[in-house]
Amino acid sequence: MEHGSISSGNRIGWIECFDDDPHEVATIQTQLLSDVVGIIPMSSPITAESEADDSLAMKRERLLSVLRSYGSVAVAFSAGVDSTVVAKAAQIALGDRAIALTAVSPSLAAGELDEAKSLAALIGIRHEIVETTEFQNTDYLRNPTNRCYFCKTELYSQAERLLPRWGLAVLVNGANLDDRGDHRPGMVAATEHQVRSPLIEAELTKADVRQLARAWELPVWDKPAMPCLSSRIAYGVEVTAERVRRIDAAEQFLREQLGTGELRVRLEANELARVEVPLEFVATLAAAPQRKLVAEKLRSLGFRCVTLDLEGFRSGSLNAVIPPEDLLVQWRPV
Predict the structure, then answer these.
(1) Positions in the chain short of pLDDT 50
(2) Alpha-carbon distances of 29 from 11, 96, 253, rounded to whole Å
(3) Residues near 217 by Cβ (< 8 Å), separated by ≥ 6?
(4) Which candidate, 69, 74, 4, 73, places its Cα nearest to that of 32?
(5) pTM of this prediction?
(6) Distance CA 50, CA 258 (A)
(7) Are 77 and 169 within one domain?
(8) Comparing C-alpha atoms, which of 122, 192, 180, 126 is closest to residue 155?
(9) In the prediction, which pLDDT does 11 show?
């Protein structure tokens, strides 16, 4: 056993150093040094950045631990940042006992399937593609406020039948903690089909997910949310393949014109297009010649009227018409 001392003025601190526990020694030294005026600890100071790194590492380990507890998984993979982080984590935690599963239907925006393929290859996870048939379901097409329930039910039902063929135990989604405060009828379908939500179980928020995606150098770490094209159609207005194709073409055009991915073309009754863009683009879009160019393009696609929403882009703005008692915001664990 060795002894040592430090002093400043009349204050002296003694430490006993045990050779078999250097961590205890370092802890005692740091505490003593912090109590002594004018003495700076030899170890690196704790900064906000180092604390953030430690916090992210803890969240990462929680997520990996949750996924390992499942044994094997299929990840419902849309190429959004949430499901991409889950797919990456599943590949790390489970290796070849994890696959990514992407659903393809008319509601998938152009380019999203190609991006899903590229991301799966980058991650190194096996990628399966399934064609879903929600556009053959009249409950889905009539577009009630719980339309998403019928879409997710179709996907999860197909996945349930495929899991045994693939030798996998659990289907997981990309829902995060913040999703619990939004209208999510698809989570009802998830509960009914025993779909797990590892991001929620590991207590990760959307900000945590983006931070982890960036740390893993995933190119979608800052990708704007990209819900299905059917979500652009006002509730009660019938969903059709033609309408979602028209919306997709309009949004692709606006992205090229404005250079931003964070926008929506909402389809209201009577084929009215309500364009939502970030507030900093509202004046640009309202001024000539941009206004005329956009109006003519959208009318050529099949919209009868083209309007610009002066409140700007708001994710989920169509949910404002849903009565509070009909909002489905509660997540129930399996």
Answers:
(1) 1-44, 46, 329-334
(2) 15, 46, 63
(3) none
(4) 4
(5) 0.81
(6) 38
(7) yes
(8) 192
(9) 37
